[in-house]
Amino acid sequence: MSVQAPATLFDQDAVRRAVDTVLTDFLATQTHSALDRSLPQQAAEALSGFLRAGGKRIRPVLCVAGWQAAGGTGTPDPAIRAAASLEMFHSFALIHDDIIDASDTRRGQPTVHGQTSTHAAILIGDLALVFADQLLHGAGLTPAQLDAVLPIANALRADTIYGQYLDISHAGQPSADPGPGPALTIAQYNIAKYTIEGPLLLGAALTGDDDAIRATLTACGMAVGEAFQLRDDLLGIFGNPTHTGKPSLDDLREGKTTVLMALALQNADGPQRRVLHHHVDNPHPIDAGADQIRTVLTDTGARTTVEEMITERRQSTLTTLDTANLPTYITAVLRSLAVSAISRTT
Amino acid sequence: MSVQAPATLFDQDAVRRAVDTVLTDFLATQTHSALDRSLPQQAAEALSGFLRAGGKRIRPVLCVAGWQAAGGTGTPDPAIRAAASLEMFHSFALIHDDIIDASDTRRGQPTVHGQTSTHAAILIGDLALVFADQLLHGAGLTPAQLDAVLPIANALRADTIYGQYLDISHAGQPSADPGPGPALTIAQYNIAKYTIEGPLLLGAALTGDDDAIRATLTACGMAVGEAFQLRDDLLGIFGNPTHTGKPSLDDLREGKTTVLMALALQNADGPQRRVLHHHVDNPHPIDAGADQIRTVLTDTGARTTVEEMITERRQSTLTTLDTANLPTYITAVLRSLAVSAISRTT
């Protein structure tokens, strides 16, 4: 079965639609196969519902962009299917993260463990990880492509899990951190490599083995990825919950050591520090406390510093792209993705 | 690096040692790599400790046996490494199962979630699943071997998770089951395919594509696998906790619908049924109740029926092996594995 080709040289919406078609068809097949074998179809159905509820498909889009950046041409089928595998892996990661973070909502709906149970959600996440393998292994890759892609996919997966492990190791221990360093390391593994650099490199590996292109994609990917997480930190505190789809202050409730919070703690005076600690130590801050925290994050300069860090990374990305030897339309795509990842409000 | 070859045509202990060497070396590399990159080394160390604590390595041994059954000769490296991947997948499955079953001990030690936390154990299990991929993809398989093995590995993984999902769907609802059917389906997916048939077929796929051998391995694998689970059910109630390494009556505490329990419920009279329900509904039966349950399981004939079901499956396995065209020494190995899996006391 051929997947629908993007209508133009790089049409992000067409990539999203093609990826969603692959995912929908795959899960429908899994659901029927489960029914045929007297196995519970709820697991595959839960994944369908989770994917239907939303998501920006940023990793699949970047995977296909990486493929084209490295010179990929012709039928996009294998790239689209590899991209779909990344989205399935992302479902796994989110479902388990939501358990770990005790999140109630995701994409404006109850989380999978809220709809089922924690135990079912562990298994549904596990199944998504196996499904991600099935999608990648069944993507129609040549032996050479498979050989190039599997180590990258495995590294991306391990790094993502390590990043999350780092995250929970540091959660609730903000006072042990001397500054924003550890939070930035978490952002590098949990987000930059996972969300931006990894998908770009995975797509590029489908095509060739060009060190210069890989270096460009890594430089852009890490800068955009870090900026993406820094923006996320800001949105988690200052964003509109109606837009972001998750409750404001969720990160604070989980005691997460964001760069924003680490900077604020580093610069806070006594009373400011007490405000931050009070809310970090209290797992259920009342909304009345939210404004106090926002004030401290602003007054300590942390908010401004994080905005500056984002600007630096956007600038370095644009400079890298300007001097790189990529196809013009791919430079445009990466530039627009960088800007939207960094300037987004949701 | 070459792994140590089994000393004789099929030396189970040598296979176990070779697999453990691969696992130890792999995890040592992972631990060092994590340290080098400022990532937490605890995850890989926890997996090392888990593997060191015990385990019979039945899946790796069967994988190598399947490889030889299908005509595998020459260096066993790829088969040993594929076998090690199965053991790593098994670690993943046990770590998540122990969370789901709220088990306190495994292999005579505290479970991983007991040693760390539930959240860390979810991630350590996730990492083990990714490591299983890395071991399999890095096993030095040819493209043709990889092409044959990946779908089998993925099916084995999905079926295992589906089996566990079935298990928790039925847990705590024994009265809804009309007989031993659903419990047997769980045993087929959760154990027979996962523990016996899957590893045999995976090993066989490394070598060739012989339908007759596959049919033999499936027939033996499913029969031994079901018998293995039936023995497990008996050991869980009547076994010696010092030998089995897990508390007696654990299955009852979890409300699991074993074939043993389903048969007893089907045959029980009023007072017997009340004894069973009392303890199924009570998540912490006191040891004084254990003897009452054992008496009911015996008096209803359930224990005898399960022993008969085990005997039937042992007999069918031995008949299949007698009439199959396998190398003599492999028939001997499979026969001994079948007998030990079925007659074991731990």
Automatic annotation (TrEMBL), chains A, B:
InterPro entries: Isoprenoid_synthase_dom_sf, Polyprenyl_synt, Polyprenyl_synt_CS. Signal peptide: none annotated. Its cofactor is Mg(2+). Keywords: Magnesium, Metal-binding, Transferase. It holds the Pfam family polyprenyl_synt. Belongs to the FPP/GGPP synthase family. This is Polyprenyl synthetase family protein. It comes from Streptomyces tauricus.
